[in-house]
TrEMBL record:
Gene Ontology CC entries for this record: myosin II complex
SMART domains xref list: EFh (SM00054)
Domain EF-hand: 8-43, 81-116
A GO molecular-function descriptor: calcium ion binding
Annotated spans, Disordered: 112-135
Gene behind this protein: CALML4
Compositionally skewed regions (Basic and acidic residues) per UniProt: 112-125
Protein name: Calmodulin-like protein 4 isoform X3
Length: 135
C-alpha cells in the first residue's frame, strides 16, 4: 500500500510511528495503534481499529511493524470521508432539520472545540462574509 502514499505522507507517518516505537525495534504496540492514527489526523473508532488488527491477524497485545502500519493507515484513509463527517456533524447541530444552522451556534461550537484561533484566523471565518444570520 505504500506505493499509493506520497513520500511526504510516509515520512510524516514514520515520524509519528517512531515516537511510539519505545524499544526502537521498528514496531509499536497494537494497543497504541488508535492513538498513533489519531495523531496523524485519522479518526478511527475502536471497532475500526479492531477490524484492521483482525484483517492483519494481529492480537491486541501484540506489536505491528511500520509496513503493516502503512497498510492500515492507507485503508483507514480510503474509508474516511471528511465531507460526510462534516455533513453528519452539521446535521447534529441542525436539530430542526431546516438545512441551516445559526451562525452564533456554529461559532460557539467551533470556538469551544479544537484549537483556539488567533485574531487573524477569527476574521477569516466563513460567518464574517455571510451577509445573513445562518449558514
Amino acid at each position: 500500500m505504500a506505493k499509493f502514499l506520497s513520500q511526504d505522507q510516509i515520512n510524516e507517518f514514520k515520524e509519528c510511528f517512531s515516537l511510539y516505537d519505545n524499544n526502537h525495534k521498528g514496531k509499536i504496540k497494537a494497543s497504541d495503534l488508535i492513538t498513533v492514527m489519531r495523531c496523524l489526523g485519522a479518526s478511527p473508532t475502536p471497532s475500526e481499529v479492531d477490524k484492521h488488527l483482525l484483517w492483519h491477524k494481529i492480537d491486541r497485545r501484540a506489536e505491528l511493524d511500520f509496513s503493516t502500519f502503512l497498510n492500515i493507515m492507507y485503508r483507514q484513509m480510503q474509508q474516511e470521508d471528511p465531507q460526510q463527517e462534516i455533513r453528519t456533524a452539521m446535521a447534529m447541530i441542525d436539530r430542526q432539520k431546516k438545512g441551516f444552522i445559526p451562525v452564533s451556534e456554529l461559532r460557539a461550537k467551533l470556538t469551544k472545540m479544537g484549537e483556539k484561533l488567533s485574531e487573524e484566523e477569527d476574521s477569516r471565518k466563513p460567518w464574517q462574509s455571510a451577509g445573513h444570520k445562518q449558514l
